[in-house]
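TICKET #2291
ISSUE: user wants both folds in one file
ATTACHMENT 1:
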Amino acid sequence: MRSHETIEEIGLHIREVHDFPKRGISFKDITPLIENGPAFHEAVDGMARATEGIDYSRILSAEARGFVFGTALAYRAKKGLVLARKPNKLPRKTISASYDLEYGQSILEVHTDAIAHGTRVLVVDDLLATGGTSRAMCQLVENAGGVVAGVAFLIELRFLKGRQLLAPYEVTSLLAYDE
């Protein structure tokens, strides 16, 4: 493998798993990408390039796969990272937002003091599907008094129209699938 892969080559490391986690869902498995050091490096660098014009001081990511890319981008950009977790996983006082997934419902929480008033936050996740998770993260930022500077993804499933739920935020995705 060359040291610099194209976006299309990065996409070759994403495995499609049919009927997971339930029948009718075509899951985009990013673990082969993460397991391949050069491909993972190029994916993170690609996301960093796509977001370098956005003014922010913190990144907010949701567990678990969002942590992978949020952490890597925060490290690369020398920015703070805020963790959005499932209920009862954070030790201090939290605020929460509920959301619908394409296959269920969930809640995310952040510490109440994790995002100071006026802090510009880049929301990062591995995948944009229906937009529910990311919209909840944007609500957490705003409910804490922060400003959503943008929303960035490794993968966007365009056919699920999640970008519409995130309007008017600036949305960036490295890879996009139309079906």
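ATTACHMENT 2:
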Amino acid sequence: GAVDHVNLHGTGTLANDAAECRGVEALLGERARRVPVNSLKPMIGHTLGAAGVLELAGSVLGMYEGFIAPTLNHEASDPACHLDVVKGESRSTHVDTLISTKSAFGGANVAIVVRRAA
């Protein structure tokens, strides 16, 4: 219940996007429709080994500056996926806890949870 934002791996492929949607819905339940999600990959490109740390750094920067960056070029979500994708422009909001998920070639997966210091 403490999660305010989820930064997804977001490769923009049908299989990956559907799997990430199911994962967020399984984790957050009904809250999945209200917790903003994004991916920075369309903004910075897929930098392979550096993608995870760059997206985490961008998400933490937004956390402390009071915004969530948009998922560029996101025009429409899969009708079966009901996530609150930040698109178009940055969203001003307060984030205390974020999750950043990353997937790697060969099946390595990670979710990093960051919580604002008190």
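RESOLUTION: both attachments delivered.
EXTRA DETAIL ON ATTACHMENT 2: The two ends are 18 Å apart (CA to CA).
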